[in-house]
Write a structure and sequence with these properties.
With 255 residues, this protein is an alpha/beta fold. The chain has one domain: 2-enoyl-CoA Hydratase, Chain A, domain 1 (Alpha-Beta Complex). The chain has twelve helices and nine strands. The strands form two sheets. It has a six-stranded mixed sheet, with helices on both faces. Strands 5-7-8 form a three-stranded mixed sheet. Helix 1 links the parallel strand 2 and strand 3. It is globular. The relative contact order is 0.14.
Length: 255
């Protein structure tokens, strides 16, 4: 399969997926659909043993392409959000190991990709990771809180989401948002080492256990888009949200 915004390499059955869209790898509808299609394809590919997701340049991904999303009409906006939820589910449900090598900044949607994976390694440096949706006018649905709190605990997830707090790599390690920190020249080597550790486990046992441990999140995601994201989408079109998002778009355009 050919992709516009994803680059793939294969080594001993390990697929390295590099997010690659512009300077910050921001995600629009087309990129999100590509991520979904690739991961669904690899789930069925017997030659794929596991996936390592990384980014390009100083960004893992800066999250959603707010400048583009802000100008979507309502039908396109709903298509985007449905596709974004599908992306979350296909990563959560992926039956093989998924590791993120977070090579730089990873706020908002970038952090969501990371917390859906089995293991997270992050580069040392002046970078930030976390969910900062609230300050920019995006209401956070309960299922995202559930996934976030699975990593950092309910109290921290609640407080960080309300405040839109972004963490530096050391803080991310301290709060268990990431599992390891490494210098940039060692990040991918260590991700490959960790993947090979997972691959020494029985693949069927790993897959069944992973599914069992994620059943609560999977059931909630499968309960329906409206159940999980209806209020978020309604708020997206509210005057308050449009005002905050519009200010963010102005700031991004001024850069």
């Amino acid at each position: 399969m050919d992709f516009k915004f994803l680059k793939t390499e294969v080594s001993e059955g390990i697929y390295i997926v590099k997010l690659s869209r512009g300077a910050a790898n921001v995600m629009n509808l087309e990129m999100v659909c590509e991520i979904c299609d690739l991961i669904e394809n690899l789930a069925l590919n017997a030659d794929c043993k596991g996936i390592i997701i990384t980014g390009n340049g100083p960004f893992f991904t800066a999250g959603l392409d707010v400048k583009e999303l802000y100008n979507y009409d309502r039908p396109t906006s709903e298509t985007f959000w449905r596709s974004f939820v599908r992306m979350i589910e296909v990563i959560i449900r992926f039956p093989k190991p998924v590791i993120t090598a977070i090579n730089g900044h990873s706020p908002a949607g970038g952090c969501i990709i990371a917390i859906c994976c089995d293991y997270r390694l992050m580069v040392n440096g002046d970078f930030r990771i976390g969910l900062n949706e609230v300050p920019v006018g995006i209401a956070v649905p309960e299922v995202i809180f559930d996934i976030y709190s699975h990593c950092i605990g309910n109290k921290n997830a609640y407080q960080f989401l309300i405040e839109g707090r972004l963490l530096n790599p050391y803080e991310a390690l301290q709060f268990q948002l990431v599992d390891e920190l490494h210098d940039s020249d060692q990040l991918m080597n260590r991700a490959l080492e960790k993947m090979k550790q997972y691959l020494r486990l029985g693949p069927e046992t790993f897959s069944i256990t992973k599914r069992n441990l994620r059943q609560g999140i999977i059931r909630k995601l499968q309960s329906g888009f409206e159940n999980n994201f209806k209020t978020t989408i309604e708020h997206w079109w509210s005057p308050e949200s449009r005002n905050l998002l519009g200010k963010l778009v102005e700031k991004l355009n001024a850069k």
